[in-house]
């Protein structure tokens, strides 16, 4: 039996980082994720972590770059505007092939926006928010338990593929309190050898260089080819998702994170009305579970994408469905969380409209 506690999402994530063997945290406070820094400044330091409040988000991501280059398990966290400031450093880290964890507890925007929860950073997260052709593995938790669990997964994936991994949560998940169980995790069993790290030159090996600068275009192209091959491998092996009530579904709701929790309840309410609807919850936003959507789309009468934004993931859903079924969107913006009843109303409108259209056709 693991260690079970009642914790905020931000605190659960921070506690999991300590247990995952994170050696260094570099960050800057911004609501609604400041508890991560606060928790680690107290508990992390007591238990051997280097925890530093940098002078800015730009500084913190470059400290992560340095710590990762030295072979340490390191991380940073921020919220939307702060993650925007980190984009140049994230691109450097991706090109230099350094493992690290980045956490974005998404708030409403654009601009300074609001401290309320949002999913407006989807494009930034999955399309490569910085410059150049790179990808991040993006994990989207929907509970406090997953805020903790995905930290272990993120560090393991980062080390396995030598790549930065992003946990994309939102303000509500960071602030809500739920029961969380910390499973047994022994970092020494998970951290692989890092012969590439800049840990000081040993006699028997050549110097290690960590850089994202390659002046010759042919060399830069080879680096890019290598990265793209790695991303194809990740896309083939690391897709994660959850299907709910999908076996007999005529309609499918697609939602992630907090919107997926709302949609899960909406599925229950709609099924009580006789609407055969299921839920697809992407857990990896990249790589995206496109194949599962493609496999079931042709038997669906409609797809409803629910997001806390103006419509971002809906584009990836449409690309995956490829016209096999109508794709609809329902979203709330600016930090407003949709209710299950709203989702059911949107679904009901889709169903009734299609019934009306079918009647007119006859």
Core attributes:
13 helices; 15 strands; Rossmann fold; 8-stranded mixed β-sheet; alpha/beta; 362 residues; 5-stranded mixed β-sheet; 43% helix
Describe the secondary-structure layout.
Blueprint: E1 3-8, H1 9-19, E2 24-27, H2 34-46, E3 50-53, H3 57-69, E4 74-78, H4 80-85, H5 87-96, E5 100-108, E6 114-117, H6 122-126, E7 137-139, H7 144-161, E8 164-170, H8 171-175, E9 177-182, H9 217-237, E10 241-244, E11 251-254, H10 257-272, E12 277-282, E13 284-286, H11 290-297, E14 302-307, H12 313-321, E15 327-331, H13 340-361
Parallel strand pairs: 2-3, 2-4, 4-5, 5-8, 7-8, 11-12, 11-14, 14-15
Antiparallel strand pairs: 1-9, 5-6, 7-13, 10-12
Kindly state the number of beta strands: 15
Q: State the fourth-level CATH superfamily of the largest domain.
A: Thiamin diphosphate (ThDP)-binding fold, Pyr/PP domains
Approximately how much helix is present in the residues? Answer: 40-55%
Question: Hey, roughly how much beta strand do the residues contain?
Answer: 15-25%
Structure description:
The protein has 362 residues and is an alpha/beta fold. The chain folds into two domains: 3-237, Rossmann fold; 241-361, Rossmann fold (3-Layer(aba) Sandwich). It has helices spanning 9-19, 34-46, 57-69, 80-85, 87-96, 122-126, 144-161, 171-175, 217-237, 257-272, 290-297, 313-321, 340-361; strands at 3-8, 24-27, 50-53, 74-78, 100-108, 114-117, 137-139, 164-170, 177-182, 241-244, 251-254, 277-282, 284-286, 302-307, 327-331. The strands form three sheets. Strands 2, 3, 4, 5, 6, 7, 8 and 13 form an eight-stranded mixed sheet that branches. A five-stranded mixed sheet has the order 10-12-11-14-15, sandwiched between helices. Strand 11 (251-254), helix 10 and strand 12 form a beta-alpha-beta unit. The protein starts with a strand and ends with a helix. The model has no long low-confidence stretch (mean pLDDT 96).
């Amino acid at each position: 039996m693991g260690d079970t506690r009642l914790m905020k999402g931000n605190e659960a994530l921070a506690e999991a980082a300590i247990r995952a063997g994170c050696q260094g945290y570099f960050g800057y406070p911004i609501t609604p994720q400041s508890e991560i820094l606060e928790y680690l400044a107290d508990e992390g330091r007591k238990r051997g972590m280097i925890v530093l409040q940098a002078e800015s988000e730009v500084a913190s991501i470059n400290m992560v770059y340095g710590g990762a280059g030295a072979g340490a398990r390191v991380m940073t966290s921020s919220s939307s505007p702060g993650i925007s400031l980190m984009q140049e450093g994230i691109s450097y880290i991706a090109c230099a092939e350094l493992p690290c964890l980045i956490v974005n507890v998404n708030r409403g925007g654009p601009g300074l926006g609001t401290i309320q929860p949002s999913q407006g950073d989807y494009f930034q997260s999955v399309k490569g928010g910085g410059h150049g052709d790179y990808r991040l593995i993006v994990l989207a938790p929907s509970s406090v338990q997953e805020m903790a669990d995905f930290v272990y997964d993120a560090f393991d994936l980062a080390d396995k593929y030598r790549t930065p991994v992003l946990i994309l949560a939102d303000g509500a998940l960071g602030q809500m309190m739920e029961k969380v169980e910390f499973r047994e995790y022994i970092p020494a069993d998970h951290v692989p050898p890092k012969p590439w790290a800049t840990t000081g030159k040993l006699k028997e090996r050549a110097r290690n260089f960590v850089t994202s600068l390659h002046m010759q275009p042919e060399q830069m192209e080879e680096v890019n080819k290598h990265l793209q091959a790695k991303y194809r491998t990740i896309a083939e092996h690391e897709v994660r998702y959850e299907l709910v009530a999908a076996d007999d579904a005529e309609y499918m709701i697609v939602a992630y994170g907090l919107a997926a929790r709302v949609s899960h309840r909406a599925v229950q309410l709609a099924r009580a009305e006789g609407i055969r609807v299921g839920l697809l919850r992407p857990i990896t936003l990249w790589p995206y579970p496109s194949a599962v959507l493609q496999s079931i789309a042709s038997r669906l009468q409609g797809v409803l994408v629910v997001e806390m934004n103006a419509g971002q993931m809906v584009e990836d859903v449409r690309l995956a469905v490829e016209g096999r079924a109508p794709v609809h969107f329902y979203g709330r913006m600016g930090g407003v969380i949709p209710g299950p009843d709203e989702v059911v109303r949107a679904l009901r409108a889709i169903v009734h409209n299609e019934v009306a259209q079918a009647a007119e056709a006859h």
